[in-house]
Amino acid sequence: MDNKLLTSLVLFSSILLTLFTSSYAQNCSSHQFRSNNVFATCNSLPVLNSFLHWTYHPDNHTVDLAYRHGGVTDSAWVAWALNPGSSGMVGAQCLVAFSNSSGQIHAYTSPISSYSTGLMEAPLSFRVPRISAEFINSEMIIFATLELPSGRTNFNQVWQNGQVSGQALQVHQRTGDNMRSVGTVDFVSGQTSGATGGGISASSRQRRRNVHGVLNAVSWGVLMPMGAIFARYLKVFKSANPAWFYLHAACQTSAYAVGVAGWGTGLKLGSDSAGIKYTTHRNIGITLFCLGTLQVFALLLRPKPDHKYRVYWNIYHHVTGYTVIILSIINVFEGFDALNGQKNWKRAYIGVIICLGAIAVLLEAITWLIVIKRKKTSVSDKYPHGNEINGYASRSHEQTA
User: Fold this and answer.
1) Which is it for the CA torsion 186, 192, 197, 198, positive or negative?
2) Rounded Cα gap, residues 237 and 234, in angstroms
3) Residues pairing with 110 in the sheet
4) Per-residue confidence at 249, pLDDT binned at 50, 70, 90?
5) pLDDT per residue as tens digits for the range 320-378
6) Which helix (H) or strand (E) holds 333?
7) How far apart are CA 47 and CA 338, in angstroms?
8) Are 70 and 139 in contact (CB under 8 A)?
9) Where are the alpha helices (DSSP H) in 222-342?
10) How distant, in Å, are the alpha carbons of 2, 132, 158, 260 from that of 292?
11) What is the annotated signal peptide range for this record (predicted)?
């Protein structure tokens, strides 16, 4: 029975880890629209949790498109625009959507001629025969058909979001990703790109942010808790000895190695992102790296089981280990917040943590039952005839009498 439980736990943990990591590889082309619209091309835009789907029709030089902007509330406005003349905000020809005072999703066009725009409704420099929008599961989607300016398929693009107060659209944030949501799109080649003032492409930076997030979520956020589960619960099974130790060591060593890589990418991202700070996320990350390094070096100083200082080493190892796990989970969620509404990834990680927690609770109950049963068996083996002592005392008393 112990062997089967051990095998099942290891197999389940492997499947759980695979499912979690695969959730990061989802492509936006797998999205299914409620209206069953199908588009030939889809690209994930580098910032603001946005996606652009489109189909280009060369016969009449039109584009059917859908712009998705996730992680927003029904009190937000979203916009996507082409800018035929420059790469910034001025000159952008916008598609805008928000929820009006009656609760209806209003979609319209708005050209921008100055930085003091209020996104007022007006025709664009090219025709937009069709525009509509819908709000589903914290995601605003704008559908439109564009008649592109003749002779061009490559344009600068801009996308944004902000808050709505009454019927007035408020100015978007002027920091972070809201200042990097510009790039290009080619409706024929299917290529999109983003650019930042620092000379590093936003898409490249976003990929590195995603890599940083995956490395740290898998290492500190998944492998570390799994290693603790192996150490705490498997060693109670006699058949799992010494396999539990090797599983524990493999998980923790792998978590530290992958975590160091993730920490390194975080340092690089920080140096490339002047003026953008996630202070809490950074400070917890530095603390985790220091504590994790101490744990690794502590393995080299681990006393033998019968050593008089082993009990103190155990206290240190357990306190530091559980501190690392708690801080790791907190920092993974801090990282998701920094990724601007990557809710699918956040939900996937929440699912992983719930599963690991359920496994821990189940094994906690099982191990306590096993320990209690072994204690009873130990007492029975020590005193195979439960009333032997009392019986001896009674016989002695009778002989004395």
Assistant:
1) negative
2) 6
3) 94
4) confident
5) 989 999 999 998 888 887 665 456 778 888 888 899 889 889 988 888 888 788 777 76
6) helix 310-338
7) 11
8) yes
9) 224-233, 243-272, 279-300, 310-338
10) 31, 51, 42, 9
11) 1-25
Residue 225 and residue 222: Cα distance in Å, rounded? 6
Which residues share a beta bridge with 95? 80, 109
Residue type at 68 in one-letter notation: R
Q: CA–CA separation, 96 vs 88, rounded Å?
A: 17
**What are the tokens at 169?**
């659209």
Look at residue 313 and tell me whether its pLDDT is greater than 70: yes
Length of the chain counted residue by residue: 401
- Residue closest to 52 by CA, chosen among 21, 74, 82, 72: 82
Q: What pLDDT does residue 109 have?
A: 95
Give me the torsion for CA of 67, 75, 156, 38, rounded to 10°: 0
Residue 178 corresponds to which amino acid?
A: N
Residue 360 CA to residue 371 CA, distance in Å, equals: 16
> Which tokens go with 271?
């140096």
**Mean pLDDT, the chain, integer:** 79
Instruction: State the Cα angle at 187 between 157 and 23, rounded to 5°.
Output: 80
First to last CA, the chain: 54
DSSP conformation class of 220 = I
pLDDT reported for residue 195 = 43
Nearest in space to 140 (alpha carbons), one of 32, 50, 265:
50
Residue type, 308: K
pTM: 0.50
The Cα 32–Cα 29 span in angstroms is 8
- Which residues have CB under 8 Å from 356's CB, separation 6+? 16, 222, 225, 226, 229
Tell me phi and psi for residue 295, to 5 degrees: -65, -40
Q: Give the model confidence (pLDDT) of 182-228 as tens digits.
A: 888 888 877 676 543 333 444 555 667 778 888 888 888 888 888 88
CA–centroid distance for 44 within its chain? 16
